[in-house]
């Protein structure tokens, strides 16, 4: 479900023509639908109505502070993975009592920052991290609430770069080491063990990996209970997939229906960390065609957006549907590579894609770009990062302005020995 629709052959976001937005803020740009964001969040939240739960939106998917504020107003917390994300979440008004902190490489200063902010808990990923958190908490005189992230060795059947719950991955603590680590954790003076965490991967289009992971974790929670370690929170992570092309991912209701029977006797607060399923289809990236270029081997459509603006196709070979902002009247089609201006052969938005013929100046919408789109953008090739726009009905809100050239060199200095110009 999303709110990008054609009216009279013109693509709209809610009640605003995309063409108008592109004229006002320029291209490339990201455009998000307020209504879709709200609907996706509520669909997730309501699906779990019958289970005491907290949604900690995985802000790595889209961390614009306007989006975070919107989520917070809907009652969401945040799943964070860095001090920078903590800073954003707090700035946006996400209650720290709903912030959970994952990631294999938390630094001492990040731990300190999170303890100061009194976040709900750390999702601890190794013995070394546990030791560090205990030490920092001791120095600060603030006990640290933790969950241990368990790696259940389950294949989520998704792209290898976004699989996180396999034995060979860097994430979490192996299930067969978990009990020992929990025992160590409870013995540490500045640690309060409160939860179990598990996130096995992203863009999952089947339910069985979720339930298989749970089936590995629930006996552990039972064993812990017998050992006197009471688990109050069970965090099952994020990972629910979306439709990019022809995938039919489960609805949050299906996920809830699959996990609910397993959780019946468990007296735990459930934590969920959806990212992509909330924001993915709530956003698009709009780009303008610069040139049609034909070589002996291929036909290229060169556009003004590149891999620095949307990395997913280059990094994961990810498919994003590409639509004309103005539906062409003719029926001519072409098979093309849609490529950007960056000096890399890996800079493409689509390969061998059959689309209606494009002309220089046409606007194209790269669909399903709301998650891991802007957040993975960079300044590679000294390209300023693009604006983000939030549409609410007829209203257009620029929630991040386009960077300018001065932004590109902010923080850089020329040392004194180079001060004179050539
Ligand atoms: N919780 C944890 C601990 C995570 O590591 C992630 C995502 C999530 C929740 C949210 O997962 P989601 O609901 O969005 O699937 N850049 C990649 C995706 C990386 C996902 C990293 N972790 C992409 O563009 O597909």
Give the CATH class of the largest domain. Alpha Beta
Helical percentage: 25-40%
The secondary-structure class comes to alpha/beta
Gyration radius, rounded = 23 Å
Q: Please report which band the strand proportion falls in: under 5%, 5-15%, 15-25%, 25-35%, 35-45% or over 45%.
A: 25-35%
Mean pLDDT: 96
The CATH architecture category of the largest domain equals Alpha-Beta Barrel
Q: In DSSP terms, counting alpha (H) and pi (I) runs of 4 or more, how many helices?
A: 12
Head-to-tail CA distance between termini? 58 Å
CATH superfamily annotation of the largest domain: Alanine racemase
Number of strands: 21
Q: Can you tell me the overall shape?
A: globular
Unique bound compounds? ligand LLP
List low-pLDDT spans. Answer: none
Let me know the largest β-sheet. 9 strands, mixed
**Do you know the CATH topology of the largest domain?**
TIM Barrel
Number of domains: 2
